[in-house]
Amino acid sequence: MLNIRTFDATGGGNVLYKALAHPLAAAAMAALAERLPAEGALAVYDPDGAAATLTALYPAFTPDGGLFTHESEQVGEKDGFGGTKRALTRIGESPAEVILVASFEHEKMLARVARVARPDQLVLTLRDVRVPDRMLSNPRVYLDKQNFATNFCFFRDDARFSTRLVTANYWCSYGARDVRYWMRLYDGAGAVLAEWEHPVPDGPAGIVVDSADIRARFDLPEFCGQIFIHVMGARGHDVVKYALDIYGKSGEPSLSVTHDANAWPSPRFATLPAPDRGERVVLWVQNSHATPIPAGAITLNPMGVEDHHPVAQEIGPFATLPVDVGALVPGVAWPAQFELRSGNHVVRPRYEITKGARTRIAHMNVERGDLKPEPALRSLSPDLGRGFVLPFPVLDPARFESWMQPTPMSEALSSLPLRLDLFAEDGSPRGQHFLGNLPRSHHTAIALHDLMSEAGHADLVYDFREGGDGDGWLHALMRYRSRENGHEAETSFGSHIFNTLMTWRNEPQSYSGPPPGLTTRLFLKLGQDTRRSFSCLIYPTSVEGQPPSETVLHLHAADGAEIGRKTIRLNPSGSFTVWPHEIFGVEAVEQAGTGGYVLIRDLTCRLFGYHGQRDEAGAFSLDHMFGF
After folding, report:
1. How far apart are CA 70 and CA 61, in angstroms?
2. How far is CA 176 from CA 166, 169, 229, 328, in A?
3. Which of 4, 40, 165, 388 has its CA 20 to 30 A from that of 452?
4. Which DSSP state fits 290?
């Protein structure tokens, strides 16, 4: 496993990791490695604790000549490389001919090390590894998080499929101007196919990047790989959010949607379903680094079972490998699930399920290693009501099957004590269904269409009547199947405490700012070509007695101009399907154009939603929405 720290729940993304792993930095590190002597040792001075991440990504910089620190209390501690940390004042005693200072601050570090280094020792820093200043939001502070608003995106264009990244310039609401998306497209082998900048108008304009357009623009062959995205001029935060449509062409009946890749590699991922009868499940493993993934470094195991099946192939820098899950782990079928031991090599992976003539793509979720079972969840304050709630739609049972599979999403969790609370669209209760205290290795899939006779939604909540543990990271995988044509879509998400005035730790989370989160800002793209977009909007509540929502739908044109506004109201625990072409009219939606969108705003409560598109043949996509 790569020894890198990428993300933690308190501090968020590790900007040092992002700075070192950036593709431009990777190329510069390769050039810097050429300045190292073919023989002889390398000493590393590590002023900022970067050595572990640096050497994990770039093994040529392993400090075989010693790791040095200016922290006196760290001297003598294990250095992680088979030795102990040494005092910076002793670096001149190292036999190393080259000293690398693991810092981007060149002049300051040269002056510091010159006091103790020998005259014959060459001192290098990471100055030449910096990305160009024109790409930085804050050039004065290189390791500012907003300098590294970066992410990856699965991207494909071939005879059957195209992909379309859709988002909006939400950076403008934080005062950003002259925003540009720097993009680099890699093919399946990790070779660079194209590199370009995508300008964004000032203001809340829509952003659309279509693989068919990029392929024609650069005269490219078919490809299935990934885009690296760097947002220049970002303000407010460092998270690059988008929706990704995967749509068929030339009569291809498939249609699906997924979303941003979460930007940070993780040791484990979950929410990967085993293949059902007649299905082929392909896991797209996309290397997020310039360092190859060794053969056998990534494994799959049935959830809750220590039976590990390694991916035998080496995966090159930034390369994409399709892994046939059923062939790698034979004999395991849906509703079983898999866990991916990804070793910090990849950001959130996608998987593709093929059944007959149709395919669908969805994403896996991060399985956290920092959470432990939390006894306090059994006795939360009455002001928090049901506590953690995971809401998801139940589509019209006359037309759709709706399935739900609970998923353990932290490494330490061994049981899932759960209950389903069911609600009609107007928020009226439609009963409860106790699932029991499920083991980590459960094979449970709940047919919600058998529990409800009308459209609405369900909440997955903790229920400790038979014991068990919770960790506040409650997740589930939801699958929907059309009874008319067999088309399917699936998504997965986690729980929150919703719409309580009192807080518990960082809940109820806010789309921006500290808890309690009691407002809504959701992005709903408009349909493209002949497809219509929709949102299954839900008003989840952890406590009873909430007032109806005051939800305003803002229709924006592609250039960001608002061209329509409508107010709707949802009852607490209610739901509503937003069809923009019905609410605003077909003419207004067409006026909004490609890149137009609906911003769903509410200043009274936090809503949650799922979005998708439906085409004329009845194919549909579905995934959870993002806010900003």
Report:
1. 19
2. 19, 9, 17, 47
3. 388
4. S
Check whether the bond before 516 is cis (ω within 30° of 0).
Answer: yes
131 Cβ neighbours under 8 A, 6+ residues apart: 19, 22, 24, 25, 147, 230
Q: Judge contact between 318 and 186, C-beta under 8 A.
A: yes
Beta bridge partners of 269: 340, 366
- What would the two tokens of residue 148 be? 């590294």
Q: Which residues pair with 480 in a beta bridge?
A: 402, 489
Q: How far is CA 575 from CA 180, 371, 395, 540, in A?
A: 37, 31, 11, 9
Which tokens is 22 given?
């950036």
337, amino acid identity: Q
d(CA 91, CA 98) in angstroms, rounded, equals: 11
Q: Which tokens is 242 given? A: 């988008």
Question: Three-state DSSP class for 442?
Answer: coil
DSSP code, position 146: G
**b/e sequence 499-531, b meaning 16+ C-beta within 10 Å:** bbebbbebbbbbeeeebbbbbbbbbbbbbbeeb
Q: In terms of Cα–Cα distance, which of 292, 284, 228, 262 is closest to 56?
A: 292
Task: Give residue-wise pLDDT tens across range 84-121.
Answer: 999 999 999 999 999 999 999 999 999 999 999 999 99
Q: What are the pLDDT digits (tens) for 158-214?
A: 999 999 999 999 999 999 999 999 999 999 999 999 999 999 999 999 999 999 999
pLDDT score, position 568: 98
| 36 CB neighbour count, 10 Å cutoff | 17
Which residues does 140 contact at the CB level (< 8 Å), separation at least 6? none
Beta strands 86-87 and 67-69 are parallel
H/E segment holding residue 623: strand 623-624
Q: Please, are residues 609 and 549 in contact by the beta-carbon 8 Å criterion?
A: no
Token pair 């309580």 is at which residue?
Answer: 500
